[in-house]
Specification:
With 279 residues, this protein is an alpha/beta fold. 28% of the residues lie in helices and 19% in strands.
Length: 279
């Protein structure tokens, strides 16, 4: 079953956000094509305080939201596990990342409507035993992992007789483990898998026909046609429409391909502290 990546906006409950001049947006900057770090400036990239620049689909959505609000924008590079704590502690104002609206997260933060649809795949080596797999059953005996504290890791249990490996912190870490033979594959959304393959020609990914892949929780598979961001609260009726979102994603994917391969070639959530946005 397809996993529908949500777009969610998370805001501070504190009143200081309402008069802030800069929108502080938290993201990993480590999950292309949604967000990544690069060394050189570009038309769409934004500088990071620790050096380098952030770009990607999430960055472009963030810039659009800040523009509608009339705010400057700052991208705050934050490890995945630190995103929600950073929001709750006031170190950032919003999270824009591929974060599903689980019941546990919704107890403390608010989510806008989803805005990107993707499917779960398994990234494997091209020359590996699982490159020609077509169903979850084909991965019996495989050493599979996923990112720590994501539903990617929990769906591994749906693979019959799988050798579930310890969860890993980041996608680059999983890519290194896969290339070195420590694991046989890892769970990813298709866009993330495409970016991994673009920079690692020895890798490929396995897609599944309907009924042959992962079953996912409704919290991970719900999607709406309208993007319901914080701009709707502050400026009613203002939305980032489907065609504009599609254009953002298309440009981000092509930009990453250029950075990764030197050639022109060739799925976020925005989250608010609980109680800020009433949907």
């Amino acid at each position: 079953m397809k996993r529908l990546l949500c777009a969610l906006i998370a805001l501070m409950l504190l009143g200081s956000f309402a008069c802030a001049e800069t929108l502080r947006v938290g993201m990993e900057c480590n999950y292309a094509p949604y967000n990544w770090t690069q060394t050189e400036a570009s038309d769409e990239a934004l500088p990071l305080s620790g050096g380098g620049y952030a770009d990607g689909y999430d960055v472009r959505i963030a810039k659009r939201v800040a523009e509608e609000l009339g705010y400057d924008i700052e991208i705050v590079k934050t490890e995945w596990d630190g995103l929600v704590p950073s929001l709750l502690s006031g170190n950032i104002d919003v999270i824009i990342a591929g974060m599903s609206p689980t019941a546990e997260r919704m107890a403390t933060i608010d989510f806008t409507d989803p805005y990107y649809e993707s499917e779960l795949v398994i990234v494997v080596r091209k020359d590996g035993a699982y490159a020609e797999a077509t169903s979850l059953a084909d991965f019996a005996g495989a050493k599979i992992t996923g990112q720590l504290n994501t539903f990617h890791y929990t769906v591994i249990d749906q693979i019959p007789d799988v050798q579930k490996q310890t969860a890993m912190d980041t996608f680059p870490t999983m890519i290194v483990a896969l290339n070195s033979g420590v694991i046989d594959g890892y769970i990813s959304e298709r866009p993330g898998a495409e970016s991994a393959v673009a920079t690692n020609p020895d890798l490929t990914y396995v897609e599944f026909a309907d009924g042959q892949g992962f079953e996912t929780d409704p919290a991970d598979t719900s999607i709406w046609n309208e993007y319901k961001a914080i701009v709707e609260k502050h400026q009613p009726g203002t939305k980032v429409g489907f065609l504009e979102r599609f254009a953002f994603y298309d440009r981000a994917a092509k930009s990453y391909a250029v950075i990764a391969t030197g050639e022109t070639a060739v799925y976020a959530n925005v989250i608010l502290k609980k109680g800020v946005v009433k949907q």
